[in-house]
């Protein structure tokens, strides 16, 4: 049994069979063969080995001709490994006797070899382990006949263990079959983390290199509460976590009773509880948990995993589905919030060394106005079906907001000329997620109908911490006093001017911060569907006076550690049974 520590990004516990995707995305299944298929599979294995040898030989010859034999020696070593009789015998024995699939047998044998080299001292030995991984990938490519396993094709319950998962891959995850998620890299605010939380599946990121220690089909436990994964757990550990799962189910059943009750504090202060969604089908989850509407509809999924831009009708159909399903409740639609590096239909930026500070979100939309106008037209068309509000992301200057509103005005004019109905008084808001927006809040209040604080980005821009980088993940925290002071300014200025302000970042979906946020004056939360009952319960269990005292004390603290410790103490007084 081996226990590994990562970063908890989506709570819950998952126990099950692993599906391993390495950094090239190979799926390595543990599949057992029927007895009559062994010879045929051995023949397939032999062909894969021969094909891999042919590839290596071609590479060796090319390098030898262009650079000389010294540089080609590495490929000679690869050929020697591919032709090693002991390796062939070991793999064949696993297929004949244990009835393993060729893919699983190859992976298991070569990863055992690689671990031996990794355990030896010296850079040279570590490089030999990399050679073995290279050989493994060559053989698997020829066995599988493809280079990438489609996560959308998963049809049985698994825990996905991967080096990383791209935004387009996360968009295809099916929570019916993907029960949990672990990645070697990534941070608490990464897209993978946000989608996992939205889907309600336990997830841990930033574990570091571990995929060589696990094979497809191994039993794994994901502890999304503590940020841990357990490889090959013993029976006692499995029994312990199964008990934890039952406890969580029991709590979920109790929270279910709150679905139709309002989020109202003990002294009668009403709190609006909205839901965040990434895909139209998540509307049902929001309704099941008693959301007052959709406070953040991320529209990026329409652009991911495709080579062209979605048509206006494609946009409209998705938006219309959400609005109709919400049955008159408000839906806040955030316009495109992707970087140019994620858009296949657009040319790659020439000098995008830091995508978080580059051409993304509203900047990208304003640079590609036809694409922007297409989305806005679709949103406006859908506004005739119910209450829709438009929200612009990553606004950092007044001029950006005004330019975005000009494009919106153009889209309105287009529809008016075509006699297409839409809501002419549609409300327009902006995300508050960069320090410059907060410093200019007293000016922005005259320009918008509402605000929504996006803490995922606000934290990284305030603290200069890449939210997807595990190496600085310890610095990425909503508990930092600087972040809390920025939130206090934003909420105070908006409330003073009577402009509605909400929060849609991960911070408000964590009950640790509920009292603090209420004490700062926030009265509208937009969280992942799975978090709605818990946050609603927190609101119904405290008084405004109690929350104000908490906020006043927090604003005097000087470190994130002190803030977290104090908030944990206060939350424990209200909910002593919660894991902290």
From TrEMBL:
Residues 254-542 form the PEP-utilising enzyme C-terminal domain. Residues 156-227 form the PEP-utilising enzyme mobile domain. The active site is at residues 191, 504. One of its GO terms (molecular function) is metal ion binding. It catalyses: L-histidyl-[protein] + phosphoenolpyruvate = N(pros)-phospho-L-histidyl-[protein] + pyruvate. It is an enzyme of class 2 (transferase). Phosphoenolpyruvate binds at residues 298, 334, 456-457, 467. Its cofactor is Mg(2+). Keywords: Cytoplasm, Kinase, Magnesium, Metal-binding, Phosphotransferase system, Pyruvate, Sugar transport, Transferase, Transport. It holds the Pfam family PEP-utilizers_C. One of its GO terms (cellular component) is cytoplasm. One of its GO terms (biological process) is phosphoenolpyruvate-dependent sugar phosphotransferase system. It is found in: Cytoplasm. InterPro entries: PEP-util_enz_mobile_dom (IPR008279), PEP-utilizing_PTS_enzyme (IPR050499), PEP_util_C (IPR000121), Phosphohistidine_dom_sf (IPR036637), PTS_EI (IPR024692), PTS_EI-like (IPR006318), PTS_EIN (IPR008731), PtsI_HPr-bd_sf (IPR036618). Residues 5-128 form the Phosphotransferase system enzyme I N-terminal domain. Mg(2+) binds at residues 433, 457. The keyword Magnesium applies. Its EC number is 2.7.3.9. General (non sugar-specific) component of the phosphoenolpyruvate-dependent sugar phosphotransferase system (sugar PTS). This major carbohydrate active-transport system catalyzes the phosphorylation of incoming sugar substrates concomitantly with their translocation across the cell membrane. Enzyme I transfers the phosphoryl group from phosphoenolpyruvate (PEP) to the phosphoryl carrier protein (HPr). Belongs to the PEP-utilizing enzyme family. This is Phosphoenolpyruvate-protein phosphotransferase. It comes from Bythopirellula goksoeyrii.
């Amino acid at each position: 049994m081996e226990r590994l520590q990562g970063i908890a990004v989506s709570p819950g516990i998952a126990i099950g069979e692993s599906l391993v995707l390495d950094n090239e995305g190979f799926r390595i299944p543990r599949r057992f063969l029927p007895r009559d298929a062994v010879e045929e599979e051995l023949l397939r294995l032999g062909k894969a080995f021969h094909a891999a040898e042919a590839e290596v030989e071609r590479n060796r010859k090319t390098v030898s001709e262009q650079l000389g034999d010294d540089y080609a020696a590495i490929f000679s070593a690869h050929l020697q490994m591919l032709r090693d009789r002991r390796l062939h015998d070991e793999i064949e024995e696993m297929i004949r006797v244990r009835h393993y699939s060729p893919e699983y047998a190859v992976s298991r044998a070569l990863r055992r070899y690689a671990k031996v080299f990794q355990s030896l001292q010296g850079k040279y030995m570590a490089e030999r382990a990399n050679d073995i991984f290279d050989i493994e990938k060559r053989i698997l490519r020829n066995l599988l006949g493809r280079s990438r396993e489609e996560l959308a094709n998963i049809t049985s319950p698994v825990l996905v263990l991967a080096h990383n998962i791209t935004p387009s891959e996360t968009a295809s995850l099916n929570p019916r079959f993907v029960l949990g998620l672990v990645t070697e890299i990534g941070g608490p605010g990464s897209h993978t983390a946000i989608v996992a939380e939205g889907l309600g599946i336990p997830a841990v990121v930033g574990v570091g290199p571990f995929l060589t220690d696990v094979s497809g089909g191994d039993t794994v436990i994901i502890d999304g509460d503590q940020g841990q994964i357990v490889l090959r757990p013993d029976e006692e550990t499995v029994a312990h976590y199964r008990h934890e799962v039952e406890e969580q189910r029991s709590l979920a059943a109790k929270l279910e009773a709150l679905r139709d009750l309002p989020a109202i504090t003990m002294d009668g202060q009403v709190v609006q509880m909205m839901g965040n969604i990434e895909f139209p089908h998540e509307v049902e989850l929001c309704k099941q948990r008693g959301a007052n509407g959709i406070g953040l509809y991320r529209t990026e999924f329409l652009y991911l995993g495709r080579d062209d831009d979605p048509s206006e009708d494609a946009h409209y159909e998705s938006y219309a589905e959400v609005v109709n399903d919400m049955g008159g409740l408000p839906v806040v639609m955030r316009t495109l919030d992707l970087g140019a590096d994620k858009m296949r239909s657009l040319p790659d930026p020439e000098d995008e060394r830091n995508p978080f500070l580059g051409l993304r979100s509203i900047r990208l939309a304003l640079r590609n106005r036809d694409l922007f106008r297409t989305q806005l037209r679709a949103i406006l068309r859908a506004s005739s079906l119910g209450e829709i509000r438009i929200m612009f992301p990553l606004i950092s200057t007044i001029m950006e907001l005004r330019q975005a509103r000009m494009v919106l005005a153009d889209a309105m004019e287009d529809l008016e000329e075509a006699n297409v109905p839409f809501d002419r008084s549609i409300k327009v808001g902006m995300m508050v997620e960069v320090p410059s927006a907060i410093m200019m809040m007293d000016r922005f209040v005259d320009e918008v109908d509402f605000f929504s604080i996006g803490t995922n980005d606000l934290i990284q821009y305030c603290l200069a911490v890449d939210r997807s980088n595990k190496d600085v993940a310890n610095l990425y925290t909503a508990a930092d006093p600087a972040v809390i002071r920025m939130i206090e300014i934003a909420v105070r200025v908006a409330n003073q001017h009577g402009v509605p302000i909400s929060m849609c970042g991960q911070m408000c979906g964590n009950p640790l911060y509920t009292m603090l946020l209420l004490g700062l004056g926030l009265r509208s939360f937009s969280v992942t569907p799975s978090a709605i009952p818990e946050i609603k319960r927190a609101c119904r269990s405290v008084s405004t006076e109690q929350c104000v005292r908490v906020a006043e004390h927090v604003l005097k603290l000087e470190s994130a550690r002190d803030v977290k410790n104090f908030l944990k103490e206060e939350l424990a007084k209200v909910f002593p049974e919660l894991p902290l």
